[in-house]
Design goal:
This protein has 305 residues and is α+β, with helices and mostly antiparallel strands. The chain has two domains: 121 residues, 2,3-Dihydroxybiphenyl 1,2-Dioxygenase, domain 1 (Roll), CATH 3.10.180; 152 residues, 2,3-Dihydroxybiphenyl 1,2-Dioxygenase, domain 1 (Roll), CATH 3.10.180.10. The protein is 20% helix and 34% strand. The chain contains six helices and 16 strands. It has an eight-stranded mixed beta sheet, covered by helices on one side. Strands 10-11-12-9-13-16-15-14 form an eight-stranded mixed beta sheet. Helix 2 runs antiparallel to helix 3. The radius of gyration is 18 Å and the shape is globular.
């Protein structure tokens, strides 16, 4: 477990059409509006997080603005700040009150050596715990970020944020900070795009019903249904109207510090098999391309937008 990071809170994106984003993510993906600001929409799930998505009106293509992690304490923000600088990253914004954010709290914004922007918050508002709502996302369970230099990215997450490698396959390094098998995973490739964002659903039935609802709305399943090896989670992958890859998942494996990490040879499937069940076809070519297309907003644009 990370001594500084409690978990994944939310993801902020630039999208070219905010009204279209609201229609899709509320009516089809089943999130709810949590708040609005000038050219920004906040969307929540059924869980305790104040919001999961901050969608900003952007340019002609989707971009990722930042990934928001929740700190374990106010002191953890200062520790992360020092760690980031020692690990070769940058501090973009010192710890400060997030006055315009509907969740509030104190936030630190940093950037890793390859330009990925991360926000770490403490004291943000939480909603009262309630039973999961069938067929609605509860929270984010992980974000997968591509890396052209996986070992450097892994080292930064370890040194700056206290993440631990849970497992590593031939295409991905899975890293955790809490009991979820992975909170951030690193896609091993030749660019540094957003690979995908995973939304935790209440159960198997909700993952499957969500897949049917998406197909009915004209958004095909690009990979799934299936059950992953690392993490043991159910999956259905889709592409949103702006080219962002999103996943419905459930039954994510819960681990502790005694969990034994395994490497690519352990997770190698027999020929023709891509998941535990052996029923999932290969990810579509369209999905693979989408997993390389959504890049982090450049720093100057991020500050000025």
């Amino acid at each position: 477990m990370s001594p500084w990071i409690d978990g994944l809170r939310s993801v902020a994106l630039n999208v070219p059409d905010l009204a279209h984003a609201e229609e899709f993510y509320t009516r089809t993906w089943h999130l709810e509006v949590a708040g609005r600001g000038e050219n920004v929409l906040y969307l929540r799930g059924s869980g305790s997080d104040a919001y999961l998505f901050a969608l900003h009106q952007g340019g002609g293509a989707a971009q990722i603005r930042h990934v928001t992690l929740r700190a374990r304490s106010r002191e953890a923000l200062d520790a992360v700040r020092a760690n980031v600088l020692r690990a070769g990253g940058k501090v973009l914004a010192e710890p400060q009150e997030l006055a315009g954010d509907p969740a509030g709290g104190t936030g630190l914004t940093v950037q890793d050596p390859h330009g990925r922007t991360l926000q770490v918050v403490w004291g943000d508002a939480r909603r009262a715990e309630a039973p999961p709502v069938r067929d609605r996302p509860i929270r984010l369970t992980h974000a997968v970020l591509n890396s052209h230099a996986v070992d450097e990215t892994r080292q930064f997450l370890q040194d700056a944020l206290g993440f631990r490698v849970a497992d590593r396959t031939g295409i991905m390094a899975f890293m955790n900070c809490n009991s979820d098998h992975h909170t951030i995973a690193i896609g091993i490739t030749d660019n540094d795009a957003l690979n995908h964002i995973a939304f935790l659903m209440p159960d198997f039935e909700s993952v499957m019903r969500g897949g049917g609802r998406m197909k009915d709305a004209g958004f095909p399943i690009h990979w799934g249904p299936g059950r992953h090896g690392p993490g043991n989670n159910l999956f259905n992958y889709f592409i949103d109207p702006f080219g962002v890859v999103i996943e419905y998942t459930a039954e994510v494996q819960q681990v502790d510090d005694s969990y034994e990490s395994h490497g690519p040879e352990f997770w190698k499937w027999p020929p023709g098999r891509l998941d535990q069940w052996g029923i999932a076809s290969a990810p579509s070519a369209t999905l693979k391309e989408a997993q390389r297309r959504v890049l982090f907003a450049p720093h100057p644009d991020y500050l000025e937008s």
